[in-house]
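Reviewer 2 asked us to include a model.

Predict the structure of this chain.
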Amino acid sequence: MRTEVRDGPDGKLLVFVQIRSAQKLIGEVYRSRVKDWLHGVRPAAPDTETQRSLDKEPLTEAERLRIIHAMLTLPSSEGGAGITPGKGDWSLVEGIFPLHDHEFNKEWMKRWSTTWTVGPEELGSIRDMFGEKVAFYFAFLQSYFSFLLVAACFGAASYVLLPQYSLTFAVVNCLWSVVFVEHWKRQEVDLAVRWNVRNVSRLQSKRARFQPEAEKEDPVTGEIVKVFPAWKRLVRQALQVPFALGASGILSALYAVVFGIEVMISEVYTGPFKSVLVFTPTVILTVMVPLITGTLSGIATKLTDFENYENESSYDAAMTQKVFVFNFICSYVPLFLTAFVYVPFGSVIIPHIDILGLMAQPEDGKLGTKATFEINPDRLRKQVIYFTVTAQAVNLAMETIVPYFKRMAFKKAKEFQNRRNGKKSSYTNDAPEERSFLERVRNEAELDTYNVTDDLREMCMQFGYLCLFSPVWPLAAVSFLINNWIELRSDAAKICIEMRRPIPDRADTIGPWLNNLGFLTWMGSITSAALVYLFSTPAAGQQTPSVITLAGILGSIVFSEHIYFIAQLVVRIALSKLDSPGLIKERQERYLIRRRYLQESMGVDEETEAHEIGGARTTHGGNEHFWSTQQGPTGTIDAGKEIIRNSKKEQ
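Predicted model (structure tokens):
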């Protein structure tokens, strides 16, 4: 590697790394592709001649950066430099990141600002520049957006033509979610084949923080490998159960208490300062939720570290599932409380939580008769509208607009502080020809690191609102359609402007979020059945449920769940009958490989036969006269005809 060092921001150093020679890079790329073939990622081995192999499949920018990053971060036992930013001997290394290609970024944002959809070619260019992991996210978002077109049209029609909590809408919405998830599973395979990353998750390196406890001989390779006992990891993983239950209990209790306070203040309390006190629940959640989730996230990280996973994908999957629990509680518990506690049983529960008995006082402070509590049946619909419209817009602003202005404000404040203190630029030693380049690098070094998991989590939670609660407000899909059209472009702008260029990691799926989508689809079938059973009365939306029986609600849930599993099976079988470009490509490549090997083996046979005809033929048992009576196939056919004719004459 070639290295250069320059002065960085805030007393840091910028270390620039470049591979020493093109031949070294080509050799690493070829070895990487051979390794992919040996592990079943590629269907065929690369050409034995290195340059011809690169001519057939040119090196992409993402592959080049991934190979160089691997050379820096892989352990020395695997041929890398063993750099682990922020860990061990490399604790002072803040991070490793490639520089943005600003020309590509400008063209990318320009193209996406003038197009409605993202096609396969565009996804391919994202994959070539940012790697498969980022490309899979944008492919998922585009596929989700395309399916939302159908959901939005049907939702708008249902909002106009069908009653609220319509059984028809609930059934169609459930079928839509099943078709989408199964279709995406198939599309993942198709993209993985086209991008040559099928089964790439099998090809992984050990984590830098993996702590083996023993060494043993690999029964397949015979090599001595470092291992951690599987039974011990299983025991540690069992700690996830009490952790998940505890985290769910803490967050659910917080939301339940705040929910009770909010109901009492907004719908029962008639005393002084009501207009101010109504913001109390918001203040409590704003302060407590980040504090509690931050603490729980820290515990989840330590617990995942304690589980001691060997590779990054296993570690990320375990961490993702823990984070999913937090997000599920924070996103859906308020709606569950309203739908299944407040509306059906509010008249019974609310009087018991008015423990002080002071919330019925009139605003002038004089004693009077207590106010009667009446359930607000429109509360659930308003909450769903908030989470599917207002909260989505706020999240979009917090994700894209606020960070930009925050970064610019800090930059201006820092410049003002330096001018006030009389400090001059600390980069006076920069060479004139390097100044603009180094300024650009320093700006990128101060950006945040992009994590595609955050964007996948956001879309997964949004999909959950659609599966679980869209029967309450069928226009939710319309809101998500508009939001995701903007999201698709704002995420591209976020990567280009607000974040460091991501490491082009490979992936063959969106990871554990796919299982979470399936879970939300199943959960949606249950929730939709319960909502329809509880609220589809003649005056739904204006009346609270009149008759609720345990047998009735359990029966509707079980029936809906069985319909879900049947629909999932039918959709899965139907999609398996359809072809896709990726699967066709895979079959073509396998066919060409088989044909090539057959031709090579037949070529050997023909060569051997020609050699035998030339005088080196092998005879068996000295019967050469027997085998030379009839010359070739024509002589054999003529002799057979003659035998048949003679036989007929004799008859």
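The first helix runs from residue 22 to 38. The beta strands are 2-7, 13-18, 214-217, 224-227. We have added this to the supplementary material.
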